[in-house]
Amino acid sequence: QVQLVESGGGSVQAGGSLRLSCAASGYTYSSYCMAWFRQAPGKEREGVATIASDRSTSYAGSVKGRFTIFHDNAKNTLYLQMNSLKPEDTAMYYCAADPHCRGDYVHWGQGTQVTVSS
Length: 118
Hints:
Layout: E1 3-7, E2 10-13, E3 18-25, E4 33-39, E5 46-51, E6 57-59, E7 67-72, E8 77-82, E9 91-98, E10 107-108, E11 112-117
């Protein structure tokens, strides 16, 4: 059974940093494509960053240069390093797994809240 558990969210002031973690279990972690998504109140869910099985990455324009997605295969853990946080980054952040790297994220964590105050 695939399980994704996020942690690391919290409240910070604008300009601060947070590192989100997503502990994965129940599958061959290194073969999957992974991603971070976020959803703010009243807004649609949006993709933040992706990382493929070959470690290639992509980012939403709004976070490029500020956020970094990476993983530690030995720990089966995905991370999102978030620097220079802005109030508009406030959202619930979710990690997700795509077993076939086709853009179909079928496994999701429960989310971790990030709140950035001005």
